[in-house]
Amino acid sequence: MTERTQEAQFTITRVFDAPRELVWRAWTESADAAEWWHPRGIEIKEGSVAIDVRPGGRYAYTMVNPADGEEYPTVGVYREVDPPRRLVFTWASPGDPDDTAPLITVDLRELEGDRTEMLFHLRGIHAEPGDEDVYDGWDSAFDLLAEQLTARAR
């Protein structure tokens, strides 16, 4: 079981071969997000992604495991939106209280050569590489994001 405390946290840093605006769009446009907001082997339920990117706006999506049909609905509230640099939002299941939900911060930094460094920080869940849970799920999703960005940056 994943530990959930206010002190628990982890960070994943990635460099993408794509301009920052493209990475921002992948995080903030429903059609783009639907392509990668899931680990490899899991799918997004068609039509389930809804994004209202503004402070206080909400998002929702549902992942589906095609092997057994199990669904994983996810919701959150945007706390900070600073295009195309920073997103801060909660990450929870429907019905979870927003004030205690894990908090995700995504910072995007331009690098030379139309590349972007993404610093993903999740506070409220302890996770680590090889956990086959939250950390590995996000890491796998970022692999899909890298593939999507590479295809679109061409």
TrEMBL record:
Pfam families: AHSA1. InterPro entries: ASHA1/2-like_C, START-like_dom_sf. Residues 17-148 form the Activator of Hsp90 ATPase homologue 1/2-like C-terminal domain. Belongs to the AHA1 family. This is SRPBCC domain-containing protein. It comes from Agromyces mariniharenae.
